[in-house]
Amino acid sequence: MKDKQSDQVKRYHSIKFKLIIAIVIVQFLSSTSRKYYQLPHSTIKGNINLCFVLAHSK
């Protein structure tokens, strides 16, 4: 029972960690793209969606 709980905690932390990395990547991409490329908003939105997909697929 305790092992199962610790596994869930580990999985939760790994998802949280991936999500934080994804958010950092999105922030970086959106700030750099606005500065250098003036990319449309849909591209930034696509990056956010891609990061969420990567974060949720293990």
What is the general shape?
elongated
Helix share bin: over 70%
Task: Kindly give the count of domains.
Answer: 1
Largest sheet: none
Question: Mean of residue pLDDT?
Answer: 75
DSSP, total strands: 0
List keywords for this structure.
90% helix, 58 residues, mainly alpha
Molecular structure report:
- Keywords: Membrane, Transmembrane, Transmembrane helix.
- This protein is an all-alpha fold and about 60 residues long.
- It has one domain (about 15-55).
- The protein is about 90% helix and about 0% strand.
Concise summary:
The chain has 58 residues and is mainly α. It contains 2 helices and no strands.
Task: Compile the SSE list and pairings.
Elements lengths: L1 H36 L3 H16 L2
Helix pairs in contact: 1-2
